[in-house]
Specification:
Length: about 300
Amino acid sequence: MTGVEADRGALALCAAVLCAGAAVWLLAKRDRELRRARLLFVGGAPVASAAPVAPDPARRAAEVAAGVRERWRVRYGGRMGRELLCLPAGGVVALLGASVLPLLFAVAAVPVMGRWLRRRERGRVRERRAAGVIELCSAVAGELRAGRQPGEALLAVSPSDLGERWGLVAAAARFGGDVPEALRRAARAPGAEGLTGVAACWQVAVDEGAGLAAGLDRVAAALRAERDQREDLHAKLAGPRATAMALAGLPLVGLILGSALGADPLHVLLHTPAGLGCLVLGGLLEWAGLFWTGRLVRSALASSGAVADER
């Protein structure tokens, strides 16, 4: 009993340290945003304090955590955020099961969850850029029909979803540069591939005097049709995807029901050889099922020409 109590005490201490670290990390981000807001509201000048304030250990720890977070972002290009919630969840399961294995699994799950969240974010950015290209075509065509010149019509539109490369396009239109080449460069951003059609229309209009507004309307119509086809395919694949996720969550439901019936499944899984074998085998089967489902979805998207970057 003494050994079990010592193990539980060590697990409680470890879980508390992890929770405190995650809280400091998130508070560091909030503190940095507040400092940025203060600087913006006072016009860039530092806020003068009325009296010298004694150093706060919590603030110092938050600044250290913010520095570590910034170095992580610069060196590895990653952002730590919601994936850190795996650590407290793993700590809770470790306390309930009196084993360090769930905590180790949670630590290993942090980078995997981070990659998944970043992939979802890239998919959302890609969709926003695609929608921005469609709005750009319609807006520029409207400006041309209102009597503006092509360069003026392009400068009158300021899309916010096309990223930093749109500044090159605006500069080329403002100072008489190569607008089609700037549009092709901006089209290299994920989701902005439709700008290649805009560049082609611009080139034809400049070289042969064709109507640019009509060409932009056709590009916008083609991009809308492609977006509708992609959304229809995502809707058709939502059913199999939801079924796979529901099947993947059934083992968790079984653990909850077993605990409610007093069977103590966590003890069996984490403290007996047969339970550990079942845990490893079940985890491998779960991973294989999710991997295979994702592969089927990606192959369906690729065969139809839709975007393969999953949400």
